[in-house]
Structure prediction request, 93 residues.
Amino acid sequence: MATIAFAGEQASTPIFATLARNFDVDVNILSGSVEIVGDRRVGQFHIELEGEKITQALKYLHEAEFEVEVHRRRIQESDFRNQNKKVKIQTCN
Prediction:
């Protein structure tokens, strides 16, 4: 689970569609809001991500200057298939 926060021009970006297309990641929106503060749109969404390229998707969000906070990660069977391979999720602030 993660929280994505944004403001200004980022609010016009089709970010969830971009994640789905570019990283083959499913985005489940748990809650969210978008408001106008002054003349800027600001908002945040609480989401779950599923797929093989979650780390790359989170890195993309960070590089696109979205605020991202990872709360927890769902453990999958594939995480245990190769004991020598460590699964790492980078928290982007």
Remarks:
- Residues 39 and 84 are 51 Å apart (CA to CA).
- The chain is about 20% helix and 35% strand.
- Strands lie at 2-7, 26-37, 40-50, 67-70.
- The helical segments are 15-23, 54-63.
